[in-house]
Amino acid sequence: MSRLPGVGRRSAMRLVLHLLRQDESQTLSLADALKTLRTEVHYCRECHNISDTDLCEVCANPRRDHAMVCVVQTIEDVMAIEATQMYRGVYHVLGGVISPMDGIGPRDLEINSLLERIGTQDIKEVILALSPTMEGDTTGFYIFRQIQNLFSVNGKEKVMPKVTVLARGIAQNDELHYADEITLGRALAGRTEMK
Fold it and tell me: Mapping DSSP to helix (H, G, I), strand (E, B) and coil, where does residue 162 land?
């Protein structure tokens, strides 16, 4: 239990003692739920969000605007943006940001699948909804340049999608999924185009 994030040794001990005091059926039910989590939940083939089907609920929804892709770092960021109820497009989860200090490069993220998606689908806008940190800004600029390169190849008939970033209502060096719904909603509504 102490290996779980945010759970120290004392908290882990309290959790274990609590589980031991419960009916055996409740503890076994929790164990079954954890097993189901590991065996039946996987990543959406389109956007890399969590799902229990091949396509997640957002990607499978025909009422969502599939021409607008919001690029986020983590699944928690998808949940935070969905909580605003202000976004009707689809997502693309990178799985992190470029961070040379942590040994994370572009190949460690879902950037190539994003570029493939942009190159093959009719995408009109790419929203870079990355945390306003040095790593988030670096990742956003890298993606922007890769999109530019994708559409600068001779013979392309498609027009490059508009690339926007969130308005800076979110504090510098703050994680996106910690922002409140109102601030995040305003940042999404006031996004600006990258040039």
Answer: strand
Count of other CB atoms within 10 angstroms of residue 158: 13
Angle at 64 between CA 88 and CA 160, to 5 degrees: 85
Per-residue confidence at 81, pLDDT binned at 50, 70, 90?
very high
Largest CA distance in the chain: 68
Element (H, E) at 170: none
Q: Which amino acid is at 154?
A: N
DSSP calls for 178-190: GS-HHHHHHHHHT
Q: How far does Cα 2 stand from its chain's mean position?
A: 26
Comparing 176 with 164, which gets the higher pLDDT? 164
What pLDDT does 135 receive? 93
Quote the CA–CA distance of 7 and 54 in Å, as a whole number. 32
Q: Determine the Cα–Cα distance for residues 43 and 36; give it in Å rounded to an integer.
A: 14
